[in-house]
Structure prediction request, 401 residues.
Amino acid sequence: MGSLRQPPLKIDVDEARRLVEQFEKDGGANLDSGEDTLLVRYFRSNQDPEALALAERFDQALRRWSK
Amino acid sequence: MRGAGRTDELQQRIERDFDTETPPSTFEQSLDYVRDGFRQQARALQQLTGMNDRREQRQKALPLLARRKTVQDNLLVTMQKESITDTERAQIVEFHDFATGFLNFISRELNVFYQQYGIQDKPGISVSSIVAAETQQQLSELIITNAQEASRHEEGLARKRVFEDRVFNLLREMAIQAAGKTRGEHLYNTFINGAYGVAAAYLSYSNPSENKFGKSFKVIIPSPYLDAIEQTDLLLVDEGNMPREIHEEITHAIETLSEGGVHAVNNLSKEAKSYIYKVQVKLKYGSAEMTEEDMTNRDRFISARCKSLGFDNSDYLVLNYDRAKALIERARKE
Prediction:
């Protein structure tokens, strides 16, 4: 009953996409650090083509908004 | 290649020393890389505090976020190397996740990256609070697991203790880099005390000779949602004389809870609830005597989080730091 290790908080591809799209729009002005954390963790745990494409979009948006 | 001006003898010594010196393993290099990366990020965070212009603050924070992503990308490449074992890979991920979660906690406490404190798209739920609660719980789990394994004398334990120390050292360094010595120490202690308190309480309730109820509870660290939203640090299940159907009902609720079903335990039947204790833990330095504030918090917890939701059993545990450390040390030796 209830192991010590519980599954970590994670987001699914739909939530990751929503956060990346939000980031593309506003440079993360409305993300909180918890969402940043979950997004970064999502990119680590998921290496499928869709996740890689989202990571690439996130990188590009980061570069664009950092200018 | 021979260095200019070096004698043959010197050159031979250099080559011999180089050959006999054990180079750091990929695992060690990866941990060092994570540590350096997060120390730098924490230092960068410090420059963002106290800025009034939120837009400018966010703009300046973006390279920091990019740095997090770069650290992660490089780690992913390194972790594909065959020279890393699965255990080492898991520890690198864990080390990285502790640092990421703690960076989130410091960011929130320093009011960086956080435009509308506590207001999110899901009413009543702040993602940052939940991530911080999760990281704190994972630290507790690390302490508990190592203590339990110490009592079983499992192999590789010394290395796990080294890892535990490394995690705590990194978090302390990050807090000081981000917030300066005084505030950083305070932030670190607040965070770590929560983890130590829950770990000590877990071990205490698991052992009938260490808790006031004299029972060996099944102790559950609930989902971080329950921790963040209801300030419930532990759930105790009194399995003695529990009917089978109640056992199944509670098992199902706990599983649902760990998958994010915040209300699963609150929705249990009245009879099932009678086997569950909700616990809030507080760890203090110095005396563990309850202050008036503690008593007010205890009454509020029992009233709002327990009785009003149908739980007649609860505990508000105040531990002092020395007792918590002693509890953990005793568990290591059992």
Observations:
- Chain A has three helices and no strands.
- The interface with chain B takes residues 1-2, 4-9, 27-38, 40-41, 43-44, 47, 55, 58-59, 62-63, 65-66 of chain A (CB under 8 Å).
- Helices of chain A lie at 13-26, 33-45, 49-66.
- The radius of gyration of chain A is 13 Å.
